[in-house]
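User: Structure with PBG, tokens only please.
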Amino acid sequence: MTAPFKPTPDIDRITGNTRLRRNRRTDWSRRMVRENSLSVDDLIWPLFVVDGHGKREQVASMPGVERLSVDQAVGEAERAAKLGIPLIALFPYTDPGKRDEAGSEALNPENLVCSACRAIKAHVPDIGIMIDVALDPYTSHGHDGLMDGERIVNDESVAVLVQQAMIQAEAGADIIGPSDMMDGRVGAIREALDHAAYADVQIMAYTAKYASAFYGPFRDAVGSSGTLIGDKRTYQMDPANGDEALREAERDIAEGADMIMVKPGMPYLDILWRLKEAFAMPTFAYQVSGEFAMIHAAAQNGWIDGDKAMLESLTAFKRAGADGILTYFAPKVSEMLASG
Ligand code: PBG
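Assistant:
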């Protein structure tokens, strides 16, 4: 973290001989004074998996992003490992026929994410795998927890989420990513993992996850935009709140989170900065589907330079204190970084 900035008294009197532009004049000098840089080690790649074999389906609202059958996901994981990407995050497109009120497919040890995890672990042992804990890709109502009438119930949901985390750990997940925003889930998952000899499985908590409009394309990708009844404002955070993120983080950390995350990314850089400053934890940002889609859409219209906007946005996360970024740009930016 940077040292606190103390404005110089009387700065106007002495600025005569200061020229900040001197350091910016040449490329070598700009590189030399650069405070932050992006590396492949900072990137986490979210991948969508779907039933079938040899299947790749384009997600309409996310240019270049495909839903992959397990065999194809193994191929992409291999590519990611070769590029040096440390971690991939798996998300399922669950067949609509397998979605129900209770999200029971989440507890099927042979479900898509568990099968993909096993296959990738067998073929590509040197890449980390994270799996989301939340019920929304599995429920007929599209919510992350269980419903009782109109309500998303907390403790009953946590009990199911714990079981979901356990089958993911059994499938070989290295990191469990609770993205459900139920209270107390991190502690409950940690306790269950530890009792079942999964003490080494890490937890990256979706700590400050906001009820955001920027998740739209993701919900297309996992097929929950059609299913979602209402919205997620009774469990995801209010975009107007900042202090509350500190309270969420304090609890997740006390409950045993190894890493914390802020989501979405760019509209919440202040939250990222505050959490990193306050807790000095490994802190991640999720550049979500809507942010990815916006950059692509503007670039496709010729309104911005897409590659430059991509690199600028990712560098901004580093500047704001991120230790890493979940981004759909991960393979593209890794290739650019590798070729210099
Ligand atoms: C599921 C989940 C969501 C995202 C990641 N995990 C969607 C949601 O909460 O509705 C969004 C990711 C993205 O938009 O890229 N709980």
